[in-house]
Each structure stands twice: as structure tokens, then as C-alpha cells.
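Thread amino acids onto this structure.
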């Protein structure tokens, strides 16, 4: 499948309404697993529907390779059935009166494929998705996870150039969601299909995607690999949206700066006087450590004293809640904390673990270079 390009794509549902999608530039390469990630109402499903042809653009254009498929300026609109894309909704939309095999080969029958080729394709995808043993059953006789596999098999059987998935796992329980994530990862590798996956679940995006596009209020906030999104968030929105527990934010607001934020501001200004216009600093919970003795804190670290107010086990790790007079920090540890509630500890983080944002919430890239070049003694 050629590369899909959205250039200045815009969608508006009325003259007086805000844009559902605004000036979106997005490139989806052949064989890519692209996740559109963001909160409800951010425009990710609208974007998927515009790619599919279920929504007309209000502005901009969509190209598949060199072919324009939607452009108001050029007066072009290619209908969904001619875009060679498969769409799987949150609702499985299986035919209740057809067997699993007939549901799977439904699209192939519409295309009037020869019987031998149709049966070979159906058998391949049913075996790949482990539903061949259910071929004579009906959808009502299957679990939610099995029905989801049938919906995917029906799309994969017609071998679409692009597979569009609109939150297909949201109806499944935790265990089935985990299994289906692994299944989708394997299918992407085996069939090499371009996949565009809409989700509000950051872990689905992080574990599945080769590329993540984070959206908010109809605009693209950042696009990159899962590691890029997590390790180098482009702004505070991305930093705070991706991560669990969420990132700790220290805001340098002169009217309400917390004591820990003041310590961070003093730490940065004394070590890196060239930095200007800092609005806030973020620290991932796993980047924080603690010590009960001052001499155990590595020199050069950003650190401070706080009180342990919560020890929360999560199974394989623990979340510590630390409080000062005007701030709360969370840190995670994989070692059983030998601490008591009310005990005073020193938190610390290496300078390269600090994410520095300006007053508009944008990442200060100059700070990255300075902080990463710092040497802890």
C-alpha cells in the first residue's frame, strides 16, 4: 500500500462549531502500525473516518501515494469502497445468522472470488487467529475475544491495503485485551498490513505501535516512536497524558510555586544559568529514588527532603507517595521499601531525568543537551 498523506486536513461540523480536526499533517508509511492516541473528543476517530472516506474533509487533502482521494479544492472524493481499506469498529458487527466461516468469507463472496481461492484465504486467516475450530458456530456462541478475532479475520481475508481499527479492544476484559494486543502485534508482523489504530489507552499505543500520533483538541501534539513519546515528550500535555503513574510536574508559578518547585528552580539556575524562560519541570516516577541518609544521595542530583505518606503495592512494584509542606511526589520502586508512614526521606533524581518545559508548556530542547551532558560525581 502506498504512503497515506494528510495535508492540512480539517473537519468542521458547523459554521459556529469548533474544528473537530484542525490543519492535520500526518504521514502513514507502508507497513506501519500507527496509533492515534488521545483523550475522548481529541479528533482521533474523526481522523480515522476521514482516512476511510466515511467523513468528507472540510479543508486540506488526503493522498494515497500520488492519488488524491479527498480534496475540496480539487473537487475530488473517492468513496470508501474504492479506497481498499478494511475497517473494524468497537462494535464487532458480525452477522448473527451466519456461521463463523461465513462471516469470515463474507467480503470475499461479495467480490466473487473463485471458491478455491476463497477457501484458501479463509483457512489461512482462521488458522492464524485460532478460530478455525469454531467455523461452524454462530457469533452468539463465542466469547467477546473470539468475536473480535472473527471481525479481524473478516477484514484480513479480503487483504486490505490498510486496516483501520477504532478502539476494537475496549469491550474486552483485561486478560483478553492483553491477549489481543499480542495477537495484533503478531498479525502485523505476519501479514505486513498497514494498520491505523485509534485508542485512548496509552499502554495499547505503547505496546502495539511502531509510530504514535498524540492528539488533543483536534491538533497533532507529537508524532514519533513509543520511546520518543515517552522519553522526550514535546510538551506538557504529552508528558502528562503518557505514563502511569503520571509524571510529577513542578510548576514555576511565582504566585503559587511549591517548596519542591522552588528547590528545582534554584537547582537549575545555579547549575545551568543559560536556561531562561522555564515554566515547569517534569520527573517520571521511575526516575526518582530515595535514601534515608544524606550521604547516600549521589552528588549532583536534584534532591530534597519529604515525608512518606503512602506505600502502595501494585504487585511487582511499589508506589511511594511523598509529601512536603506544599507538594506531593510519586515514585516507583521494584525493591520492597523498608519504610514507615511518617518517615522522612530524601528523594533524588539525576539531572538527565528532568524534563524542562517553557511557560507555554513546550519542551526546551536546549535544556536536554545541558542536562544529558551533566556528569554526576
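Threaded sequence (377 positions):
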Amino acid at each position: 500500500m502506498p504512503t497515506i498523506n494528510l495535508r492540512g486536513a480539517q473537519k468542521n461540523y458547523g459554521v459556529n462549531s469548533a474544528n473537530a480536526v484542525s490543519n492535520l499533517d500526518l504521514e502513514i508509511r507502508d507497513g506501519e502500525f500507527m496509533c492515534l492516541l488521545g483523550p475522548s473528543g481529541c479528533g482521533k476517530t474523526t481522523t480515522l473516518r476521514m482516512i476511510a472516506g466515511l467523513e468528507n474533509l472540510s479543508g486540506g487533502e488526503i493522498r494515497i501515494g500520488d492519488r488524491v482521494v479527498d480534496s475540496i479544492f480539487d473537487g475530488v472524493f473517492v468513496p470508501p469502497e474504492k479506497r481498499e481499506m478494511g475497517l473494524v469498529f468497537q462494535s464487532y458487527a458480525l452477522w448473527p445468522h451466519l456461521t463463523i466461516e461465513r462471516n469470515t468469507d463474507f467480503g470475499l463472496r461479495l467480490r466473487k472470488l473463485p471458491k478455491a481461492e476463497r477457501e484458501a484465504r479463509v483457512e489461512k486467516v482462521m488458522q492464524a487467529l485460532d478460530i478455525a475450530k469454531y467455523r461452524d458456530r454462530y457469533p452468539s456462541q463465542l466469547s467477546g475475544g473470539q468475536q473480535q478475532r472473527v471481525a479481524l479475520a473478516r477484514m484480513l481475508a479480503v487483504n486490505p491495503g490498510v486496516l483501520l481499527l477504532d478502539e476494537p479492544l475496549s469491550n474486552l476484559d483485561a486478560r483478553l485485551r492483553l491477549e489481543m494486543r499480542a495477537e495484533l502485534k503478531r498479525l502485523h508482523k505476519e501479514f505486513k498490513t498497514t494498520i491505523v489504530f485509534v485508542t485512548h489507552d496509552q499502554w495499547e499505543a505503547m505496546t502495539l505501535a511502531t509510530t504514535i500520533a498524540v492528539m488533543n483538541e483536534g491538533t497533532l501534539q507529537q508524532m514519533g516512536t513509543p520511546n520518543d513519546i515517552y522519553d522526550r515528550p514535546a510538551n506538557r500535555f504529552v508528558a502528562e497524558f503518557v505514563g502511569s503513574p503520571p509524571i510529577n510536574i513542578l510548576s514555576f508559578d511565582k504566585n503559587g510555586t511549591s517548596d519542591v518547585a522552588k528547590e528545582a528552580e534554584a537547582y537549575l539556575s545555579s547549575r545551568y544559568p543559560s536556561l531562561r524562560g522555564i515554566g515547569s519541570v517534569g520527573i517520571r516516577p521511575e526516575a526518582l529514588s530515595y535514601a534515608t541518609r544524606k550521604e547516600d544521595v549521589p552528588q549532583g542530583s536534584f534532591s530534597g527532603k519529604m515525608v512518606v505518606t503512602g506505600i502502595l503495592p501494585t504487585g511487582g512494584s511499589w508506589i511511594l507517595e511523598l509529601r512536603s509542606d506544599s507538594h506531593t511526589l510519586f515514585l516507583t520502586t521494584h525493591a520492597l521499601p523498608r519504610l514507615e508512614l511518617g518517615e522522612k526521606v530524601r528523594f533524588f533524581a539525576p539531572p538527565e531525568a528532568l524534563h524542562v518545559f517553557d511557560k507555554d508548556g513546550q519542551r526546551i530542547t536546549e535544556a536536554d543537551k545541558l542536562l544529558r551532558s551533566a556528569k554526576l560525581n
